[in-house]
């Protein structure tokens, strides 16, 4: 089967960012014998720079897998230039696809809808099934986060969203909330499938000798209790409250945040103005290294803004932390809280509550070795059931195969 997969923000594991699409494509090429082309941007969004030739040379070569690096307009801030960046990627993807031999199936992934719309047009022209992957509910999330209030743009994006739901031959969602949200719009539930984020279980093995090395890189001592946050530093992540939790931490406790985004400078300013030496803000690191940093910590933080749009979120950090075996502290109510509490892998600290977060970290610190070992085991069981990327990739492939055969 010849598969096209387009995501503006996809990256391979040697670059910090969203590795889901590369890892799915790699599994399809290796295990299913598919020919997979991934369309991705050579402008790396989290760090706002172009990928280097050296980085390209460091990417594993996989038979049957081709990475088609596309130009997109560079930008530094979330202003009009980011909109141009989105539109330019979608346009270049459409033009690049026109020149290629038709695939058996085309998958286009959000969050922004321009790539997905370009994917639908290509699929229509090529005469192949179109699969829409929904990573984020646009424009609903933009509106509820206050980032979109232009009624004309809202009307356009709302029309585009409904159009894509209706015209897609199959829809892939990452959370149960997304599935219900789309079905409630009158879309046939039978064409909506859940393929959540996950972990390539074989990609990492614990190495206790690295713990000291990576704690040193984080700027913490061996005897400190460390809570870690890994990922985007944007308005949606509500990290201001995580940084301000430093005011309330018990002695010999630290919080480490790894990543980048439009809020990074403001977070650094809060840390400096308040003299929070127990807060450490690090630059993004490749996915290949993030597990070693996470393993060197003692618990993991999941943080999102206190907004109903995130009640249905299921961030990749959930899978990262449970895979490593760290107890999880979530500030997010809804689907994440349900998973954490149902699987007994952590606690809910309250939303946007610095003092509550500090108290939760202290509570986790009080867990004995037996309790921590039980959390680790339950976390691994959860990954085996619902977060093993190999199993998820096979399930996704079977959906594609059935769709192609049916069409």
Automatic annotation (TrEMBL):
Q: In this record, what's one Pfam family?
A: Glycos_transf_1
The Glycosyl transferase family domain extends over 213-381
Q: Fetch the SUPFAM superfamilies from UniProt.
A: UDP-Glycosyltransferase/glycogen phosphorylase
**InterPro entries noted in UniProt:** Glyco_trans_1 (IPR001296), Glyco_trans_4-like_N (IPR028098), Glycosyltransferase_grp1 (IPR050194)
Q: Which residues form the Glycosyltransferase subfamily 4-like N-terminal domain?
A: 20-198
Which PANTHER family does this one have?
Answer: SULFOQUINOVOSYL TRANSFERASE SQD2
> Under which name does UniProt file this protein?
Glycosyltransferase family 4 protein
């Amino acid at each position: 089967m010849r598969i096209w997969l387009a995501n503006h923000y996809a990256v391979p594991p040697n670059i910090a960012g969203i590795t889901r699409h590369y890892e799915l494509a790699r599994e399809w090429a290796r295990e299913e014998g598919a020919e997979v082309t991934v369309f991705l941007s050579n402008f790396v969004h989290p760090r706002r720079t172009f990928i280097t030739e050296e980085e390209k040379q460091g990417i594993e070569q996989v038979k049957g897998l081709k990475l088609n690096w596309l130009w997109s307009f560079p930008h530094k801030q979330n202003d009009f230039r980011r909109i141009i960046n989105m539109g330019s990627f979608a346009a270049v993807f459409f033009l690049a696809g026109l020149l290629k031999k038709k695939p058996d199936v085309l998958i286009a992934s959000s969050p922004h809808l321009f790539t997905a719309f370009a994917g639908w047009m290509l699929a229509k022209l090529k005469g192949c099934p179109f699969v829409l992957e929904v990573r984020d509910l646009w424009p609903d999330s933009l509106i509820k986060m206050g980032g979109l209030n232009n009624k004309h743009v809202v009307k356009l994006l709302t029309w585009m969203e409904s159009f894509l739901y209706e015209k897609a031959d199959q829809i892939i969602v990452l959370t149960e909330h997304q599935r219900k949200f789309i079905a409630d719009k009158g879309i046939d539930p039978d064409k909506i499938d859940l393929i959540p984020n996950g972990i390539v279980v074989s990609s990492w093995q614990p190495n206790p000798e690295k713990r000291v090395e990576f704690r040193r890189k984080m700027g913490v001592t061996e005897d400190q209790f460390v809570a870690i946050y890994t990922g985007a530093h944007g308005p949606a992540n509500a990290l201001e409250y995580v940084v301000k939790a430093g005011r309330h931490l018990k002695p010999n406790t630290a919080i480490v945040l790894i990543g980048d985004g439009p809020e990074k400078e403001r977070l650094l300013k809060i840390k400096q103005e308040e003299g929070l030496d127990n807060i450490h803000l690090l630059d993004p690191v490749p996915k290949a290294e993030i597990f070693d940093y996470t393993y060197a910590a003692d618990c993991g933080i999941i943080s999102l803004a206190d907004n109903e749009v995130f009640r249905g979120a299921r961030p990749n950090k959930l899978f990262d932390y449970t895979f490593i075996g760290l107890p999880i502290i979530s500030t997010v109510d809804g689907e994440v809280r349900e998973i954490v509490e149902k699987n007994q892998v952590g606690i809910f600290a309250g939303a946007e509550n610095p003092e509550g977060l500090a108290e939760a970290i202290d509570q986790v610190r009080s867990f004995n070795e037996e309790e921590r070992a039980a959390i680790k085991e339950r976390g691994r069981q959860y990954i085996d059931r619902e977060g093993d990327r190999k199993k998820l990739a096979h399930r996704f492939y079977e959906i594609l195969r059935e769709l192609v055969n049916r069409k």
